[in-house]
Every structure is written in C-alpha cells, then in structure tokens.
Amino acid sequence: MSKEFAIQAACLSLFLGMILAPVVCYRLGRRKQQEEDRHAEVSGAVTGAIFALLGLLIAFTFSGAHARFDSRRQLIVQEANAIGTTYLRLDLVPASAQPPLREKFKSYATSRAVFYHKITDVEAARSELARATALQQEIWKQAVSESADPNYQSARMLLLPALNEMIDIITTRTAAIQTHPPFLIWCMLFAIALACAGLTRYRAGLPVVQASFIMS
Predict the structure, then answer these.
(1) For residues 204 and 29, is the Cβ–Cβ distance under 8 A?
(2) Which of 49, 106, 125, 202 pairs as cysteine with 29 (C-beta 3.0–4.6 A)?
(3) Which residues contact 87 (CB under 8 A, 6 or more apart)?
(4) How far is CA 207 from CA 17, 37, 47, 191, 199, in A?
C-alpha cells in the first residue's frame, strides 16, 4: 500500500465516519429513551472536555506543522547558500580543474532541484537522491585531489569545509522531510473527532425538554 493511498483512505474513512457516527448515535439515544423509564444523560462537562481535547490536539498539530514548515524553509536557504559559497570558492583551485568541477556543480544543483520536483514519487526521488550522492562523492574526490598541492593548502582549508557543509545539509533536509507527527496522534485525532460527532448527536436524541434540563 502506497503512502498516498493510505492517506486518501484515512481521509475517506474519517469523512464517512463523521457522517455515520452522528446518525448511529442519534438513533441509539432515541432508542435508549424509549426503552428506559428514566432519561439517559450525558454530562455536559464530559462532552465539553472531549471537545476541548480535540481542539487542543488540533492546535498542537498545526503548531508543530508550522514549526516544521518554517524549519524546512530555512534549510532550503542554508543549502542554497552552501552550494553558492562552495561554487565561488572553486576559484581557489588550479584553473585547469575549475571547468570540470563547475560542470559537476551545475549537474548537482540540477539534481537537487529535480529531487524536490519528484518528492511525491518515492522511487524517482530515491533515484535522484542517489544520483546527487554520487555527484557529491565525485566532486569531493576531485576537490581533494586538485587541492593536494602544497601551494593550494590555503585554498584547501577554505574549499573543503564549505564542500563538507554542502554535503551534510542533504542529510539534515532528508531527515526534516521524513519528520511528521507520530501515528498515535493521528489515531487520537481520528477517534476523538468521531467521539465528538457521536456525542453531539446522542445528546440531540434526547427530548427537547429533557435536553434543556440536562444542559442547565
């Protein structure tokens, strides 16, 4: 089962559940009133507490989503800066080595852009990530080789740390992309949303006079 299919199935299940749960609970409430001499009561405090819990979970979920979105946006800027800085520092290596390194850098930057265009296609994204990783290794080996001469030790000290940062940022961004709310949180939201819908209609199943009395 693909991730997209699982998400669509969960959304459809919640939609249908929010429609069916109120209908079922309303009928249960009406039947209970008819079968028992006393009127069934559902505490307003309990209902209010469940709605408050649902609101709290939704608020925390959206807050966490906003924080992750902001963090990922900052990582985009950091990676762009790291690539740009390393590209400029290629001027420090021997002139004969600059053209092939620049071509590989252009291919690398293109690969990174294509990766995020294909992010919804897991297999294609993995393939592009592997290509970017291979280009990283080629760029690193060539940069180390071209700056090994004692005359380029100063260039080596400036180029290699920038290149290392450019490489490390991929791991950081990949981890950020894979960070989502825990599955348990989604299950709780699902269950509490259905409970809220069901309890609301269950209380609506009480006779008008009695419902007013219980609310008071």
Answers:
(1) yes
(2) 202
(3) 102, 105
(4) 25, 13, 18, 27, 15
Q: Is the pLDDT of residue 181 over 70?
A: yes
| Token couple for 99 | 């053209």
pLDDT digits (tens, 9 = 90+) for 13-66: 888 888 888 888 878 777 766 665 555 455 677 778 888 988 999 999 999 999
Say if 85 falls within a structural domain: yes
Q: The domain that contains 165 carries what CATH number?
A: 1.20.120
pLDDT average, residue stretch 196-204 = 78
What pLDDT score does 212 carry?
Answer: 42
Q: How many domains does the chain have?
A: 1
Who's near 154: CB < 8 A, 6+ residues apart? 92
72 and 169 in contact (C-beta within 8 Å)? no
Q: Which domain holds residue 120?
A: 70-181
Helix residue ranges, H only, the chain: 3-35, 44-88, 98-117, 122-146, 153-177, 183-204, 208-215
